[in-house]
């Protein structure tokens, strides 16, 4: 399973900028709906697409490798 580290990247950016960043702000900056951001952050294994990953990478100024984590199959069980 691939996991999107959205909450972690949001926390890192909030800490770096010394302010609270909301899903609403991310939504406005990326064009990704808050509902989709919420599902990505809270639903394990939520399937998304490369366009969304690209938008999030642009917002967080990172690469896909910084945003995605592969969870081995045996760890899922």
From TrEMBL:
Residues 18-73 form the HTH cro/C1-type domain. The lineage of its organism: Bacteria, Pseudomonadati, Pseudomonadota, Gammaproteobacteria, Oceanospirillales. InterPro entries: Cro/C1-type_HTH, Lambda_DNA-bd_dom_sf. Pfam families: HTH_26 (PF13443). This is Helix-turn-helix transcriptional regulator. Gene3D superfamilies: lambda repressor-like DNA-binding domains.
């Amino acid at each position: 399973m691939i996991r999107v580290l959205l909450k972690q990247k949001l926390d890192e950016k909030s800490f770096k900028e010394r302010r609270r960043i909301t899903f609403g702000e991310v939504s406005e900056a990326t064009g990704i709906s808050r509902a989709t951001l919420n599902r990505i952050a809270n639903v394990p294994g939520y399937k998304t697409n490369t366009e969304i990953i690209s938008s999030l990478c642009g917002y967080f100024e990172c690469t896909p490798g910084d945003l995605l984590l592969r969870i081995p199959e045996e760890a899922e069980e």
